[in-house]
Amino acid sequence: MTHPHDPLDGGATGPRDGGATGRPLQVETHGLDVIADSERRGTPRSLFWPWFGANVSVLGLSYGAFAFGFGISFWQALVSGVLGIAVSFLLCGFVAVAGKRGSAPTMVLSRAAYGVRGNRLPSVISWMLTVGWETVLTALATLATATVFDSLGWGGGTETKAVALLVVAALTVVGGVMGFDLIMRLQTWITVVTGVLTIVYVVLVADHVHWSTVEAIPAGSAQEFIGALVFMMTGFGLGWVNAAADYSRYLPRDSSSRGVIGWTAFGASLAPLLLLVFGLLLAGSSAELSTAVAADPIGALATLLPTWFLVPFALVAVLGLVGGAVLDIYSSGLALLSAGLRVPRYLAAFFDGVLMIAGAVYIVFFADTFLAQFMGFLTTLGVPIAAWAGVMLADLALRRRDYDDGDLFRPHGRYGDIPLRPLVLTLAATAVGWGLVTNGAARWLTWQGYLLEPFGLGGRTGAWAYANLGVLVALGLAFLGTLLSGRARVRSQEAREPSPALDDGVLNQ
User: Fold this and answer.
1) For residues 90-127, b (16+ Cβ closer than 10 Å) or e, as one string?
2) What is the pTM of this model?
3) DSSP H helical segments within 12-73, as ranges?
4) How many domains, in total, are found in the chain?
5) Any signal peptide, and if so, which residues (predicted)?
6) SS3 content of the chain, % helix, strand, coil (to 5)
7) What is the pLDDT of residue 133?
8) Residue 271, domain extent
9) For the domain that residue 60 is a member of, what is the CATH number?
10) Alpha carbons 105 and 109: distance in angstroms, whole number
11) pLDDT (tens digit, 9 = 90+) per residue, 79-128?
């Protein structure tokens, strides 16, 4: 997964006036800034391109092999993928509405539901998720480089991986520390080239698709289908939902909510849906390819190409992954600030880069397989993120007025400091959710699944063990709990008069 930038954000100086190319590059120093109404511009339609460009990546092809790993047929994998992608990005569209109602990043707007300092808990979870994604993308770029070098006979061993990791990490950290100005100058052409390259890739490897082999794959159980569905949700939209309002916060407050939802969901879903279909056809045609993707998703896809196309494929694939990791560092830095760390944004990004390098070293040099760790990571953090999304979506559905910008930063304001109800609800939904998922392939997560036996679902080895019901349960419990118990609190908040100026009694970011 790669992440989009705000379609109207010009980095350190506010909305774009046609691009960032007219300003000299400098380190962005802004943190959790509030966007003034005078700086809001654009239409919901402008959300399409950043979301579309962010999800045009050859990594989307690998999800075909990931889906078959659940033991299901092509048609089951297709339906689970379409539903998982569409529904999860629709949730992003709903959260994006908060951006045009407010004037701050997603994890600041979340304070309306959790309180100003109570929101530090979901901010930490969001930070962990974004750091995890940047780590995964860096590791993938490293593994892909090594695979291509090996295919070219240039050596793809430990030394190549070490050098590749250093280069990828350096590019990522520098981009994250510099901020949006540098990222935006590179993003447009990387998006275009990646899209064109993906089309070329499809044309070159189309003869590897064998429909008779794909069609012969036997169907799996309902539990395996649900497991694939939840995996698709956590791998796509639920990996974005904690930042979805970041990219709509420059829109005018009177923008169409339906437009924000529709263009966000459509733009984000279109490319993954198309890539998934071809990825399923490729992986279903070759059991060997499907197995290789589990260990090295991008590199395995490169092995199907003629030698002359390996270098351009690897270059653009790696650049796309680096671009996503750079934006993840930017978002994780903001989440860390929202969690209460009082340092400049660029130092938070640098700190996250150090953690990213350590995690990538583990995946590249010590992990048994990529897929086991990846699935464990997505499912484990997918549960609390789903719980947070349930609270956030229900809170947003209950609101009839825009957020009060000043009180989002005041512990004594209308949103409160540390309200217990949303925190307890999130923790309870997470506890139930972790009890209904298993991650046996990742040894450090074998403690999960503790409710499968008490609930009569067959325990950690039963039919429901890998259905990952916990993600859906956490989302549903948190949503219904907030919807049923939060109405009075929201009405009381919205009945109060507008707060004083932003500089009066606010928390220091």
Assistant:
1) bbbbbbbbbbbbbbbbbbbbbbbbbbbbbbbbbbbbbb
2) 0.85
3) 48-54, 59-68
4) 1
5) none
6) 70, 0, 30
7) 86
8) 37-495
9) 1.10.4160.10
10) 6
11) 999 999 999 999 999 999 998 888 788 999 999 999 999 999 999 999 99
